[in-house]
Specification:
disordered N terminus; alpha/beta; Rossmann fold; 151 residues
Length: 151
């Protein structure tokens, strides 16, 4: 049995993971992040409930197409990506739409959203794009963390 008292291997009872990817802060040349690696990091704690990539209006169409081909729901916003992502993450947490909230980012602005998920009784996972892209505040706020170049 796992942390939630479910039988191991029972995929119907596998924890539901809501993955939120902060595109502008994660998909940078200096990190060389593969979206498949991000998804795999989240999959280590459960089955996908949602897999979202947040981008701004300047995102190249080829990036959007590639992300959609990998199964990501792409959210493009003309406003602040951080605000939209944080609001959506918090909604998932308080509405019980997932058992685990995973965020791929290096931005400490998401610390309050992770704390809200923790306060709602959810497991939280912070996924950092690399050693130099890791936010200690975000890592410390989440119950679990992984750094992609160390995975």
């Amino acid at each position: 049995m796992d942390l939630f008292g479910r039988l191991a291997g029972d995929s119907d009872d596998e924890p539901r993971v809501a993955l939120f990817v902060d595109g502008p802060n994660v998909l940078r040349d200096e990190f060389d992040v593969d979206l498949d690696d991000v998804r795999e990091a989240a999959a280590t704690v459960g089955a996908p409930a949602t897999t979202r990539l947040y981008l701004n209006e300047h995102a190249p169409p080829k990036l959007i197409q590639a992300a959609e081909a990998r199964g990501f729901e792409v959210i493009v916003t003309s406003g602040d990506v951080d605000v939209k992502l944080a609001v959506d993450l918090t909604r998932f947490a308080v509405n019980g739409r997932a058992d685990v909230i995973a965020i791929a980012s290096r931005d400490t602005d998401f610390k309050p959203a992770i704390e809200a998920a923790n306060a709602s009784g959810l497991r939280t996972l912070a996924i950092a794009p690399g050693e130099h892209g890791r936010s200690d505040a975000l890592r410390n706020a989440a119950a679990e963390s992984v750094t992609l170049d160390e995975a």
